[in-house]
Each structure stands twice: as structure tokens, then as C-alpha cells.
Amino acid sequence: MKTADQETVMLVDDDPSIRMSIGEYLRFHGYEVVTAESAEQAILQLDHVTPDLIILDINMPGMGGMGFLKELEDDVGELPYPVLVFSARDELAYSFARTGVERFLSKTCGPTVLLREVKRIVQKRRFAALQRNRQDDTTAFHERAVLYEEQGAVR
Known about the structure:
Blueprint: E1 8-12, H1 16-28, E2 32-36, H2 39-45, E3 53-56, H3 64-72, E4 83-87, E5 103-106, H4 111-154
Helix pairs in contact: 2-3
């Protein structure tokens, strides 16, 4: 069961051993993990889950990882969730350099490298949300101050 401060990672990979091993590793380190065996299944799960990070394999049957990314992109090509591409095809790393993907990691990397990147990306997202909330609070404060001054000036 998810706790209030627990981040959710969606792991999308057609390999059941990857889903099981990485899923258990991330759960052990405090993450809620939702898995999908295909891009199509992941798209459906996004109706019910708001992940803090998506770990995505690229080479999968069906829509595959590239189709999943295209499906998620908005009109200006931005992704609504941070995505870490996790692939056995190292030669693809360069092709993600100028996309909305947060990071590309080879499946040959060790679990500590993966965990470090998951933590970094999730913390970056959390910090950005705090900054937005702080900015919203500041804007609301200034709007109330202006309104108060205007009401005081009317009296």
C-alpha cells in the first residue's frame, strides 16, 4: 500500500524477469512500483496511476517504447512524466539526447546506478513541484495584497 510520501515508478518492459527483479529492488528501496508488460498496457494504466517516473524499455512488441513516447507527447513534444529509457541497445542512447526523455541507461548498468538515477529524477520532479507551489503561493499573496490595498483605498 502506498504511503503519502512514497513515489510511484511505472516500469514498462516486456521481459518478466526485468519487471520482477527491478520492481522488487525499487520496492525494497521504498518506491511503489506499477508494472506493465507493454506500451499499450502502460497507456491504459495511466488512466489510474500518476507516476513520478516511468522506466521504459524501447524494444517491445506492439507499439513499443517509441510509440509510447509519441502517444504521451503533447502538442509541443513535451512529456507529462519524467521518462528514463532503459534499453539493452546502447547505440540508441544518442537518439534520445534531444528528446523529452530525462535519461537513457543501458540495461547492463548495475542496480545502484539505476537507483541513483531514479532518486535523482524523482527528487528533481519533487523540487520542481515545490518551486511551482512556492511561486503560486507568492503570486496569491501579492494578489491579496493588491486587493487589500485597493479595498483600503476605496474606504
